[in-house]
């Protein structure tokens, strides 16, 4: 990467994984002694190390990208190595896209071959479109063809990502079948086809909550290996995730605030876990569950916006009042029902905790 | 160990139930051709050893050693086909090589255990005084899951066939040294590590040398921390060493020793014969017997509480049978696929191909030589199950733990009772199965009736093969629902019950009569019921006679009251089962007058607590009297209840309230009478507590009857209305007390009903029965009503008029 590019990269709001962790990827590649599948930038073993973190033989420290079960990541990487497509499945905010991006960055060195699935995703976006001016002027030719990210990934032999697969209409989804089983994309207009180069594969993400919206056909299902990403198993794990992400994002957003104090993060995580699991962490009290998903990702953004508040309107230290504003917004998604649930939680759980008085009052003041 | 020894003796340290060990062991034995084989096992088992070579012997089986005078003191040594000991045994038997078991005799272990228990008992007796219970509990634990007991006596159960370092040695604080080794090698647990290093590989004759070294290191470390082992472990190892010495003296040239890897260093240790003999001298002994018993894979798994268990018996069997690594993966996945298909889950050959590829890639990624169980399970879950956990539980139950039940040859020594049960099982086509099964019996069919008798008899003998689900089902009296599950440990119960007789029927009869000789009246009635269900004809006469005698002699009327319902049930329903219940009826006829006479005396003077306990038995007795429907008996009963009603009877209010209610329900008291009684009971002069007790027992436990029984409702309603405003306020606390016992929804319903009645009353000018009819309009619907009721053309004028009114 030359200086101009790196300057440009420094200016962007959010860097791609392969830019942000370029150094780590580089070191891993250098230290990698395990066999690599064709067109992979590093061995499956090194990809796992990149995701889970660890110390290389030369003493270089690789940070953890995914905090959770190593076995799940191994399954994901092994799936891609067998040239089966990978489907990451889970409730919103369980780091599906995050894992997908880092997998693509580590394996292909490029996480940008991406199709965002929406209800309006069309077949052209999945396969290829036409430059109509060119098409009318010169007739169908390779020149007039507009390649989709998927098509480009096939030609280059790298990983393509499909986000929110289940949001895509079923008939459009099924265009993936040929690509995944024949590993080729025919272009009948030209009498040609694009055959996937070794190293090509697809990582799709899908959402538990969308179940039944556009259920995958069984033909398509059969072409995916499914890895379910769970919500963090323990409070400590979740606190670690939130803290780490907040620190990283604070750095990239250049917030002048101090990194958040651990107790504050722990409180937010506990509130989220308790509301999500329907009972207090000590298991003694039942609480109602609000309609939102209350994922780890949301906990991260609550802390983040709290930090922004503290930086720009406070003294730079994250305090209860800074957290409270976005906390209420994250929990209360349905203005009627969720508000009742939130109030109940405030009065029965938070109020009782002696050292939570400041947060309790701050939350009451927000109303 | 001297060089001389090294040529004469080879010690094979194994892991119990490890297929990799078994494979290597078989190869080593074939190569070395030993002329004597010593196995870590109870010497008492040697008498039944030849049976292991029998063709009908089908593992998993267990060598069962039990104390002759008390079969509850028993120990199992389970063997699977893939157990190294089993393979060594078969190898030696096929070549007529003498086999010895060299562990400390169970005779000694049982005796020591008993001594310990007795000592504990003495302490208990001195201390808590619950000695009896404690003693019984402990022994039952032994049989049920001997391995669970957490002190060193668990070891004494002979179920220590694991890597023995993991045993429940309380002085050993880190659970499993295998875990240390495993973690040191970068595995998640010692189990995973051992599986990969030993059980899942197909080569490795140097295996035993490696195991020996590892165990020596671990033991040295442990001894450095905790000192030399003492107690049972020391005794056992001393005994093993002296067995080895004896074999040497007998002049065998090549002695193979197969024992848990943990013991290898101890057997090689330089300990003099004198030291060992001193340790073993003067140990107590007990008479024991040995036999083979069928075993299950579930019983082999650690989850059953078996200390030396393995986590995946069915997987180990698969490992044992598979020829090569590839065929092992593919054939296991194929079996999983068939299983999924059986259960209606999509699983095509393509799925299996992909699973196999993923499993192998995973293994490569983890730098393992081949795909092991974790990789296979993860592959199945990812490829076939869409990442879901639930279908994998099926795989776990069927393909990892397994449901296999072993078989032993007919010639195995067994108590006659066991033979009789086997004969019946064959005759009635009731196969013992390890999985749980429901059995729906239609008692009108002969074979089902016989099955029911058999199961009931076994229950009388405390052999819990089947659980009677009659209560839950309620399908009628000629149906019985049983839940059957054969557990290997039942064999202990059978041997135990063998002391009662040599056939199932004889044993059950004797057991019932024995119980009867000590039972109180209510238990006698229950026994009677059980005996009738089990069709124990010879016992019934005896039972009836005992019952009669007891009933005549007893001074405790309340016992008779408690006995009545059971007997009436027997008399009423016994006939369905083709048993003669006439005798029981005669018994009931004799008992009711006794109850009627004694009831008043028995109930008067009881305090509130004692009286409250009697509510349920009295209700049950009243139901029984209704059921039997014999006028003269019912009359006697009612008269007895009548005598209790008045306050002067000295009976507590709670019982008087109940009597009033029972009699009112049977129509033996008019509404007017009850109103008077209620007024009296709730008058301001009576103690508020008594008044509330009367009312609550009169209204019963739930408000539902009050809600739906019109007569009762009107009665209470009328009584309430009759109160003056002042009285009402006085009574209110008692009413509140009673009504707060009802649940909130019940109270709400009561209030709603009260309001409804109120409205009707207003509309109907105070009396709901005098609603004014518009005769003309009512007449309009009559033809149609007649059609509906099928009265058309009959001209039943009387009914028409009835409708008008």
Please give a structural write-up.
With 367 residues, chain A is α/β, with parallel strands linked by helices. Helix content of chain A is 49%, strand content 12%. A five-stranded parallel sheet of chain A has the order 4-7-10-3-11. Chain A has a two-stranded antiparallel ribbon with strand order 1-2. In chain A, strands 5-6 form a two-stranded antiparallel sheet. The radius of gyration of chain A is 23 Å and the shape is globular. With 805 residues, chain B is α/β, with parallel strands linked by helices. Chain B has a four-stranded parallel sheet, with helices on both faces. A three-stranded antiparallel sheet of chain B has the order 4-3-7. In chain B, strands 8-10-9 form a three-stranded antiparallel sheet. Chain B is elongated. Chain B starts with a helix and ends with a helix. The chains are: A alpha/beta (367), B alpha/beta (805). The interface between A and B is medium-sized, with 20 and 22 residues.
Main features:
heterodimer; A: 367 residues; alpha/beta; five-stranded parallel beta sheet; 11 strands; B: 805 residues; three-stranded antiparallel beta sheet
Helix content of chain A: 40-55%
Order of helices and strands of chain A: HHHHEEHEHEHEHEHEHHEEEHEHHHHHH
Q: Tell me, what's the shape of chain A?
A: globular
Strand order of the largest sheet of chain B: 1-6-2-5
Please give the oligomerization state of what you see: heterodimer
Rg for CA atoms of chain B = 37 Å
Would you count the extended β strands of chain B for me? 10
Structural class of chain A: alpha/beta
Report how far the terminal alpha carbons of chain A are from each other.
50 Å
Biggest sheet statistics of chain B: 4 strands, parallel
